[in-house]
Amino acid sequence: MSEQFPDKSQETREQAGRDLATLVYVIQAISLFTAIPFFIGVLINYFKRGDVRGTMAESHFRWQIRTFWFSLLWIVVGWATVWVFGIGFLILGISWVWVVYRVIRGWLVLADHRPAY
């Protein structure tokens, strides 16, 4: 009988996790135009990671954290190589497009109630 009626606490955790992941996707989208919120988003991911463990949102948190760290890596590489024939600007541009892709893809998959991976 319990299979027909899912555990309300698990359902509540799933919804709370999706809500937090959505908030971080919004923050990451805003971060495409100003960098400061990006740090706030990843802090939310790290502080709330335990709350979403075992839920579908856990994969989205991992996706968002990796988006942050790889983006930061490529931003540093881009700025460090700006003086090399402008290749740094190309790296920065590609990094920006990659973050756009990650935010849109992650958000759409989350809206379909599917894990990020």
What does this structure look like?
The protein contains 4 helices and no strands. Helix 1 packs parallel to helix 3. The longest helix is centred in the last third of the chain and has 25 residues. The two termini are 31 Å apart. The model has no long low-confidence stretch (mean pLDDT 91).
Name some characteristics of this structure.
mainly alpha; 4 helices
Write the layout of secondary structure elements.
Blueprint: H1 8-31, H2 36-52, H3 57-80, H4 87-111
Helix pairs in contact: 1-2, 1-3, 1-4, 2-3, 3-4
Question: What can be said about this structure in brief?
Answer:
The chain has 117 residues and is mostly helical.
Stretches with pLDDT under 50, minimum 5 residues: none
- Main pleated sheet: none
DSSP strand tally? 0
What are the secondary-structure elements, in order, as H or E?
HHHH
How many H/I helical runs?
4
How much is the radius of gyration in Å?
17 Å
The helix/strand class is mainly alpha
Shape: elongated
Residue fraction in strands = under 5%
Distance between the termini: 31 Å
The helical percent reads over 70%
Average of pLDDT: 91
